[in-house]
Specification:
Elements (H helix, E strand, L loop, with lengths): L6 E4 L5 H12 L3 E6 L3 H13 L4 E5 L5 H15 L4 E4 L14 H29 L2 E6 L12 H21 L3 E8 L10 H8 L10 H13 L7 E4 L3 H4 L2
Parallel strand pairs: 1-2, 1-4, 2-3, 4-5, 5-6, 6-7
């Protein structure tokens, strides 16, 4: 896919990895629909940064766990330029919760934004991409679906569902649309992690360092450009997933 002039929706783009993904797509010539939930000010600053690169950007706010809001976001993104070529599902809730404390609320919180939100968006936007003859859907998953953390079981299960959803959507929207998933390893640590905790995580991968958001953006760029990869889960984790930890 030639990315110049294409339109991309990036969820969770106001902060952290999602912000870097949006900036990369802008650098590649895409106009960007920037989704945020509560980080409106950060999203507006990103819009300004993208404008400085010569691309257009639109900020839209939505709670992706709410089906109606997610569907409205899809419709607004599609209407902005009359077409949408790339959907990047980057928004996620990363909640720590002990096993005895898990209740319906924690499941709704994790599954809503991490799995159902991407589904509602793809259900609306995928057929539009098929009708237009081409499209890319890239889901930002997590390597933890293969070796779940006891302290974040709802989150890990939601990401396992997202990997399965990736394969299902790849089948459903073929051959016009390619659907793939990226599994980041240790890239940006939770803010509550101590330096000792960060170093312990780094020691559990083959490359003995943390990754960068730019390296996740490299994987995103590959999937956006490549027209012969679909249904793929790509770990970008320094080899951590093959160690099983």
């Amino acid at each position: 896919m030639d990315l110049s002039g294409k339109v991309a929706l990036i969820t969770g783009s106001a902060r952290r990895v999602g912000r870097v993904l949006a900036l990369r797509l802008a650098d590649l010539g895409c106009h960007c629909v920037l989704h945020c939930h509560t980080s409106r000010a950060e999203a507006e600053s990103l819009r300004t940064a993208i404008a400085g690169k010569g691309q257009e950007a639109l900020v839209l706010q939505a709670d992706l766990s709410d089906e109606e809001q997610a569907r409205l976001l899809a419709d607004q993104a599609l209407a902005w330029k009359g077409n949408l070529h790339i959907l990047v599902n980057s928004a996620a809730n990363f909640q720590r919760v002990s096993l005895p404390s898990i209740e319906r609320e924690q499941w709704d919180f994790a599954l809503g934004a991490n799995l159902l939100g991407p589904f509602w968006l793809a259900q609306r936007l995928g057929p539009a991409m098929v009708q237009n003859g081409a499209g890319k859907i890239i889901n930002i998953a997590d390597i933890s679906w293969q070796a779940p953390w006891v302290s974040r079981i709802p989150y890990c299960v939601s990401k396992a569902g997202l990997v399965s959803l990736t394969a299902g959507l790849a089948k459903a929207f073929a051959p016009q649309v390619q659907v793939n998933a990226i599994g980041p390893g240790p890239v940006l640590f939770p803010e509550e992690y101590t330096e000792a905790q960060r170093q312990a995580v780094i020691e559990r991968n083959l490359l003995k360092r943390a990754g960068t958001p730019e390296e996740i953006a490299d994987a995103l760029e590959f999937f956006c450009r490549c027209d012969f990869a679909t249904g793929v889960f790509l770990p970008v984790d320094g080899g951590q997933s093959i160690l099983g930890i």
